[in-house]
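Milestone M4 deliverable, item 7.
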Amino acid sequence: MRYLMIVKATPESERGEFPPNAEQLFADMEAFNNELIAAGAMLDGAGLLPSSHGKRIRFEGRGNTIVTDGPFTETKELISGYWVIQCKDMDEALSWARRIPFDRGEVELRPFAEPEEFEGVASAEAVEQEKAWRDEQARKAPKLDA
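Output delivered:
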């Protein structure tokens, strides 16, 4: 099962500031990411630029969108990075999340809604197509040497 580890933004990350121990933090993050990759758990991950570089798109009826330029004021609702990991269950995903080398901050851990979650709601054909797309994406994804 895939999980998303969401790194919550802080006032500092929203200002584009690195922590005072950034050099050590980046070295620790590199080691952590390499462990995830070596274990075959990391599918993707990245840091995000501050919300001042982003846009929000609000939908008010199909085809009617409202675009708002960043920055966005509610830091507690923003993210500054993420990992997509593949684990057998929530306990395994949680064990990885607990090892993130942060001194402070917050990470949210959420399972993906996989195509199987929509069985009985979406047509069997749509569920099978989603599974096929997921499998094709995994097959085409670049493989990193651990």
